């Protein structure tokens, strides 16, 4: 798979990962992972098509092919549905990015792969739609925005900070404040492209060539400040 082809869960159309809560025999109410995923996929389709406010539980039941009562066994309301979709999408993106950072190789190559995959996931069509939905309901449902942009146990800043700190310990980078360095790398890797996508100034996701160019420039600038000196 090329660097620029790694997509977020929103962008993928393959079978998503499932964390099964299986018991012997029949599943207890609310514990069938296939049914839960069926509901989430139906809700995702509705939210992406009409937005959060216009989405109704009736719409979601039709899209998911289940009864409204079944949905309420798994989720309290559509706010919880949307928040779950956001958090699970983030988890898939972060798993891929953590794996990229944990790979062997020169720091520059690892950071370029990371930058491309991050920008690719953040600028795909459905991720951008989800960000717009979250921003649109921010005042009424701040927890939804925190799910997307705020602190979380799987916070990407912490993951990149750990990478920078370890590579500094090994003498490959030099960062007195690994967290600040991590934030700067994330901004360099995504800021221009995803903000243009978010505000409708860029109608389609960036091409692979655009992602590579952004990554090359971002990493070169980052290393100009943080690469270890000979």
TrEMBL record:
Pfam families the UniProt entry points to: TetR_C_7, TetR_N
InterPro entries: DNA-bd_HTH_TetR-type_CS (IPR023772), Homeodomain-like_sf (IPR009057), HTH-type_TetR-like_transc_reg (IPR050109), HTH_TetR (IPR001647), Tet_transcr_reg_TetR-rel_C_sf (IPR036271), TetR_C_Proteobacteria (IPR039536)
Keywords of the record: DNA-binding
Keyword Cytoplasm (UniProt): no
Ranges for domain HTH tetR-type: 33-93
Keyword DNA-binding: yes
Superkingdom classification of source: Bacteria
Transmembrane residue ranges: none
Residues of the DNA-binding region: 56-75
SUPFAM superfamilies for the chain: Homeodomain-like, Tetracyclin repressor-like, C-terminal domain
The protein's name in its UniProt record: AcrR family transcriptional regulator
Organism annotation: Martelella mangrovi
